[in-house]
User: Which sequence fits this backbone?
């Protein structure tokens, strides 16, 4: 089997998205609202801006201090909703605890919600209707299809129940006719469920949480987490020292960290922004 390295796919998609942007009469624009100076958020935002530049999308960061008042962020979002030159709006998470994350997220118009996090978009997804979709789940499905990994009829275990990954991803797998189980911190007999699964998605956030012995042969393992080990090296939930055993001995498919799901999240955000612009021009 193989490491599901996303870099070639991302490179291919960048070329494709450039071409799609060139065909639009008006260049798409993405505004990212960032609050505070969280280091990881800064890196994520920089990656998003870089990809926007690569495909030819206009991008802008509105960066507030960590003690900004909620009314200021609220007014900013409402003004961006009204601005017809703005294609997509993204509130970079996490935000400081004194701000109401759910309220601010849901102020973004469904159409401009490129993260797919609003109640409207999440509700449409759960009903099988067309909507903007959370970018990490969307990227996971795209990556599986790129590597021709069968989804229909497969037993899928998602170890995460968040609104950002677990819940929307379950809906996407159901749409692809998989059988889905969601596990979480209160799940009993997790290891038994892992062994029974054809596809395992882990987004726990603990370095070395899973080892080669936890998986049966021929499992497809999607590692969503970005952790840092005791040496400060980036890693996922699956122990890096077990990659060789998983891929070569146990014949598993595995997304590496880095260069796996994280790469897909950013490119799907860009593609979804372009899709919004394309829909506007078709109306």
Assistant:
């Amino acid at each position: 089997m193989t490491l599901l390295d996303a870099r070639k796919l991302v490179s291919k998609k960048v070329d494709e998205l450039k071409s799609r942007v060139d065909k639009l009469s008006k260049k798409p624009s993405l505004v990212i609202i960032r609050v505070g100076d969280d280091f990881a958020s800064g890196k994520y935002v920089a990656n998003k801006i870089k990809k926007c530049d690569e495909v030819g999308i206009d991008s802008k960061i509105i960066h507030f201090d960590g003690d900004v008042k909620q009314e200021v962020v609220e007014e900013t979002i409402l003004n961006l909703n009204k601005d017809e030159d703005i294609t997509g709006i993204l509130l970079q998470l996490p935000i400081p605890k004194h701000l109401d994350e759910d309220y601010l997220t849901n102020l973004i118009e469904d159409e401009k919600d490129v993260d797919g996090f609003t109640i409207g978009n999440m509700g449409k997804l759960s009903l099988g209707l067309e909507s903007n979709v959370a970018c990490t789940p969307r990227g996971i499905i795209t990556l599986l299809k790129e590597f021709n990994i069968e989804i229909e009829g497969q037993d899928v275990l998602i170890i995460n129940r968040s609104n950002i990954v677990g819940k929307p991803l379950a809906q996407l797998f159901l749409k692809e006719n998989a059988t889905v189980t969601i596990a979480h911190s209160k799940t009993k007999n997790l290891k038994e469920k892992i062994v029974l699964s054809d596809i395992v998605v882990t987004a726990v956030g603990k370095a070395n949480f899973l080892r080669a012995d936890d998986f049966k042969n021929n499992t497809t393992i999607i590692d969503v987490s970005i952790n840092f080990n005791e040496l400060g090296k980036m890693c996922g939930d699956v122990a890096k020292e077990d990659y060789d055993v998983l891929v070569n001995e146990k014949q598993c498919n595995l997304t590496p960290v880095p260069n796996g799901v994280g790469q897909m999240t950013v490119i799907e955000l860009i593609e979804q922004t372009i899709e919004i612009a394309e829909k506007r021009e078709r109306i």
Observations:
- The CA atoms of residues 207 and 229 lie 6 Å apart.
- The two ends are 44 Å apart (CA to CA).
- The longest helix spans residues 261-282.
- Strands lie at 29-35, 58-64, 88-91, 155-159, 179-183, 199-202, 220-223, 227-228, 234-235, 253-254.
